[in-house]
Amino acid sequence: MNKDEVLSARVPVGTKAALTLLAQRSKKKLPAFLNMLYEAVLESESVKVEPTAVVPGPHKMKRLEYLLPDFLEKPARQRAEQLDFKLAGWVSYMVQAAVMREPVLTNKELEAVRESNRELAAVGRNLNQIARAINEEVASGRKLTASGLLRLQSLQEVNASVAELREKIDQLVIARNRAWGNEQD
């Protein structure tokens, strides 16, 4: 059960009457209306913390202690194990992700991302080969039909999308490595 605290405040003459009137208009009792007001103000004024910038260079790991309610220990350990982490490593992973606001991939996730990028590269190479074959036909004097031109344009657009996606994946890998203090690509 939540415990409430009492907050008393002095206000200029007429303020209480004005707040009471506003509360009545919103069909709330004064305490509920005041709660709504301070919650809105606190939410709008909540602390805005900028993501932590990556500091280049090798970093030493520092041991920290933290407290966790006992009922969360087992599910936290299970979640860590699902990701092939020990609990302390997983907590470190979660803190980095929250503070840096950049992706912090596990080694398994990183390898999956790299594999998908290799597969995209293969798709891109295949698209280039198809487009090259069509262009060679045109260069040899064979005229392309309107639908052939559309297919060639479509291939070029898909190829550009693949290249863009590969670039985004590369940036994800770079961000992951920076977040873990690992500058290798």
Overview of the molecule:
With 185 residues, the protein is an all-alpha fold. It has six helices and no strands. The protein has helices at residues 15-25, 30-44, 70-82, 87-100, 107-139, 146-179. Helix 1 crosses helix 2 and helix 3 (70-82) packs across helix 4. It is elongated. It starts with 14 loop residues before the first helix and ends in a 6-residue tail after the last helix. The model has no long low-confidence stretch (mean pLDDT 78).
Element string (H = helix, E = strand): HHHHHH
Average pLDDT level: 78
Number of alpha- plus pi-helical segments: 6
The oligomeric state of the chains shown is single chain
Low-pLDDT residue intervals, each spanning 5 or more residues:
none
| Apparent shape | elongated
Q: How far from one another are the termini?
A: 51 Å
What is the radius of gyration? 29 Å
Question: How much helicity do the residues have?
Answer: 55-70%
What portion of the residues fall into strands of 2 or more residues? under 5%
- Tell me the total number of β-strands: 0
Q: What structural class do the secondary elements suggest?
A: mainly alpha
Biggest beta-sheet profile = none
